[in-house]
What does this fold into?
Amino acid sequence: MNPALETLVLALKEQRADQRNILFLGAEPHPELPVLTAWQPLKPLADACERSGMILTEKPKGKFSTVLFLPGKTKEETLAGFAMAHGYLAEGGSFITAMANTSGAARFEKELGKATLLSFSVSKHKCRAFGVSNLEAWDAELLAEWQKIAEPHVIAETFFVTQPGVFSAKHIDPGSLLLAGHLPVSLRGNVADLGAGWGFLSHMALNKSPNISRIDLFEADARALECARRNVSGNVNFHWHDVTSGLTETYDHIITNPPFHTAQSKDVDLGKAFLSVAAAALKRNGTLHLVANRQLPYEAHLQELGLRARSIAEDHAYKVIFASK
Ligand SMILES: C[S@@+](CC[C@H](N)C(=O)[O-])C[C@H]1O[C@@H](n2cnc3c(N)ncnc32)[C@H](O)[C@@H]1O
It folds into this structure.
């Protein structure tokens, strides 16, 4: 289990915070948590929260006596999460956050201390939980600054909208750029974009191939999908979906830059699971167009799945693979 979550739950118990009206931002399931309202933009985790009995919401409403927060990977998400938590705190309520020491727990504790007076700090499992009882006022100027940094923004010299925390938020991913350059102009019929992010590959495919009838974008991160809605237009469908759970339709073509990280760690099996789902969802004679880091053993996996696969382009870091069923 996530050690930051363990430390968060420990702090919740130690602080004797009100457990009747809790909001959990960045929620993950834990057997010792009471029924609570949960916000989680990542679909696999959101599904796990729902299965554990949490009340999932896309946009929390109202005020809560206790707000828990497990931040994502970036500084922007963490600071914006502090501001978001403050917006949901009822008068006199408690705010508790936890993160790994290696994720900058001490630094972020100091940051929160600039906004308000901290009331506790607990160190355990190489993580730190800290927070406040909302008796003290929070610095309004700093809160406004933190709110602003998480807002969607445009990538320089493009019209693509992204937001902090989503994959490749500050630039177009170089692997996806390589794949886009090698997408054929002959894609037609129905196309799926697996792990579509903020929509770069779908946008490029639609621009290159006039005979595409429809693209379905599948993405686990609700925030990235929100950006994709602004970046991709035409006959497109947006699905907040865990690709590893499979697809219900079949496709003429599939495009993907598969993920191979879960949280901070490398997970090649996640990328392979994407390819297995793609192979199952391709129509006969359908084609798969993907990009991957050069060292990833995807060609062999595709052959095992019964596809004919070959690398059609490479640079110093990435390879573009074409496979057919
Ligand atoms: C390498 S990125 C590519 C993003 C986008 N296609 C691009 O070119 O910028 C992989 C994407 O897969 C998404 N992802 C990770 N796990 C997923 C899952 N289980 N189901 C669906 N999408 C997932 C990530 O959020 C990320 O946006």
